[in-house]
Amino acid sequence: MNKKESPEEFNRRDFLKNTSLAALGAMASCVELCPASTARAADSPDALTPAPPGPPVNYGVIGAGAWGREILTTLAQLPNTPVVAVCEHFPAGLLRAGEAAPKAERFDDYQKLLGKKEVQAVVVATPTHQHLDIVLAALAAGKHVYCEAPLANSIADAKSIARAAQSAFKLVFQAGLQERAHPQRHFLRPFIRSGALGRNVLARAQWHKKTSWARTSAAAAREKELNWRLRQATSTGLMGENCIHLLDAVTWFLGARPAAVTGFSSLLLWDDGRDVPDTVQAVFEFADGARLICDATLCNSFDAQYEMYYGTDSAILVRESKAWQFKEVDSPLLEWEVYARKETFGAETGISLVANASKQTAQGKNAVAASPYPNSPLYYALQAFTDNVGSINAEVEEFISSFGEDDPQALRDHLATLKRQPAAGWKEGLEATVLAIKANEAALARQKIELKKEFFEL
Amino acid sequence: MNTPIDRQVPCLLAALALLACAAPSRSADAPIRFQATPKDSLVLIQGTSTLHDWEMKGPIISGFVEFPPGVRFDTNQTTLPGLKDGKLPATVKASIPVRTIRSEADVRPEYMERLMQEAMKETNFARIEYRAAELVMQTPHAPGQPFAFDVQGDLAIAGVTNKVAFPVTILPVEPDKIKIHGQAKLKMTAYGVTPPAPNFGLGLMKCGDDIIIIFDWTLQQKPPAPAAAK
Questions:
Q1: In principle, which of A55, A282, A401, B122 could form an S-S bond with A390, CB 3.0–4.6 Å?
Q2: Tens-digit pLDDT profile for residues B89-108
């Protein structure tokens, strides 16, 4: 509840201090490396007091394809996110969206949805190349916007979205980079930034799934529309449509922007007329000589999705909402690791870096390796967005009722001081979108591209 | 001797202007109102608990303070114009929106904010309100220092109004701007607020009943209203 150090500078002492339960646990010889709010299962006798939900935010969801329906399902799980409108121009898609959100008014035109006064926030889940017009119209209509990542399929469009979001200071804009709002990531990042890796030398990220990406429809025109991912004109490829989350997570954790990217790509399995490769590698070079190798394929599912961080003292594996540390024999002993749960990966032993990992009850044969974060990354991202919309709405209303609207700069300054739930804003969205677009370009051209500063600046 | 008409007109205008300055205007007789500014104000609520001390902050304090005509805060003076028997009549109205009071917690600060809002019945009583009618000046006033007063007024929290007394200081920070600083010790239960006792994961965290409210309130003198046109 007390003061916070600079969010960008961490050391191990700060890490322990900031995870206040960890500090108290250490005194009791039982380190629990988790945020306080996630330390107990909801059904345990000493269950946490649940946080009362914030004020309800009325949602409109634009784009009701498979991902749009996943968003509708997730919004239905949150306690304060009624969906009052859905939009999909494909009638069958709109029908299915209506089933997922039965109380929502249905629209086949996003402009009509934006004209509905009750809609306070919209989720833009259309194909990437359609984001720009919808986001600009939504912000102009005074709606808070959650825009799926990548923001756009060109840097120019992504910058237009970022500029509009920056100008709309009374509105929340969140990029759909879900990991930025995940509590496990916020527990883990200070640990990595505190120097647990030693000197970072390499990172690796992968997204593997055997799937064609192709969609079918009885109508040829609809099928073409559905398969926007398969054409370079509309798709940012595997780097944009999938790996963007990994690229964002790694650069965020390492606290650095790469200086260049070299790419490779091939169409090895799904040669069905598409011009988007099904297998891609990108090597990002950082100024200090470290590299990030990111690879993705639609041809093989083995090992699915994960990130590895390699340092001179240890390596850290992050998979879904769990993480493990693999220490070098010459690295310093951390006091808490004696009590931490360990898991075996082949010949390696990993120290579990999830909540409950060091509890005595979590040791031994009967230890349950359940994650303390039972919800999907999308759930946490939409929860953060909803909380931030509620907060900013409250602040704007109270400020105007207290001081009027004569001084918009004062309101802007006031809102700038508002502490928000961590999530990706326009800046992070632009940064990750540029990385993904340039990685895709490098992969298609099989060449090296310098990541110039101006790519990322408005 | 006749004066040409083109020389008479400027003289007449000058005379009218002098008369206008000399005559007491309605605005000069009006109370001096300092209106809350949207910047440079802060209310800080400090409390204790069985785990650790806590703190919440709110940047919005709206309202105004009105003083009798002629009151001017010049810290170089040993006294204050407008004092009567050491008392300064004033109309003080301050208001703090409960939902703008924010936790400084690193992790899920909204958790503490919502518990506090629930405890303070924010849905029904959205603002903390304060009213007072006079300030009692502490003497002697040391030149160069802020003016110190004792103030007693009505403080309404969560629908319960109590008389409270606490010291404040008034410091002129610009020719037309003052900053009022003060702090008051309160008990939550005196306002029907049950100290929150959430389970954060290491047993019950029980908040203490005693809190301290510290505030810095910046106000700007409102320009006198122009005389109504006839």
A1: A55
A2: 999 999 999 999 999 877 67
